[in-house]
Amino acid sequence: MEQTHASAKITGIYRYPVKGLTPEPLPRAELKTGQTLRSDRRYAIENGPSGFDPAAPKWLAKPHFLMLQRDEWLAPLRAHFDDDSHVLTLHRDGAMLAQGDLETAEGRAAIERYFAVHHPDRIKGPPKVLTSPGHSFSDVPRKVVSIINLASLRAIENMVQAPVHPLRFRANLYVEGWPAWHEATLLDQTIAIGSARAQVVKRITRCAAVNVDPDTGVRDLVVPNTLMQRLGHNECGIYAEIISDGEAAVGDTIA
User: Fold this and answer.
1) Angle at the Cα of 24 (from 23 to 30), degrees rounded to 5?
2) What's this model's pTM, rounded to 2 decimal places?
3) What residue spans of 68-211 are helical by DSSP H?
4) Cβ atoms of 14 and 171 closer than 8 Å
5) Contact at 8 Å (CB) between 148 and 156?
6) Would the CA dihedral through 163, 165, 168, 171 be positive or negative?
């Protein structure tokens, strides 16, 4: 079998309902043409006035929002979002901090109050929960699914001489079975993700968010700089755009 046709197994599926907050593991996910995973980056918390207009949503770069690249203090917060009720619940160390329906002004205000009261010195202006139907606050303008090859993470562990938690990379899909960096060769190719089809559209440039431990919030590694020094680039992972509807589950194959 040619390496370009190597298959990998999905070992984890995650979505991030609120940009910058913790992920939610999923046993399976519906993949729809031209869409993200359901509710992935559906909301963001504005870090000072951004000019975002929910009636005419446009993509904005992540510095407009709370994000781990700059706001590592977000990491110890645990977020849970319920699709049916639209309720976001924030916990830390087992204690509930705030809860609100993100589709109502009152619910968004409850979440905003938490950040305004408890983290006023860490934000640039009044925190505001942003949302707009069908909009995704992704790091890239197009709606994509992100994929991380666990063999590449093991190669990074060898470079930095330390364990590297996969969730540092905030991907939607984690896969096992490809050789390290094989994913970088798939640019512009069509791949099968479970029963869906996708086109690989971009390699992922890594930012300082991956330096932050996702459990403790400690900024304890220098991954992008190490990649640049060792490989001449700071890319790890790929973005794929769904081009044919389907479903993927943990244990399914990407080929």
Assistant:
1) 115
2) 0.94
3) 105-118, 150-160
4) yes
5) no
6) positive
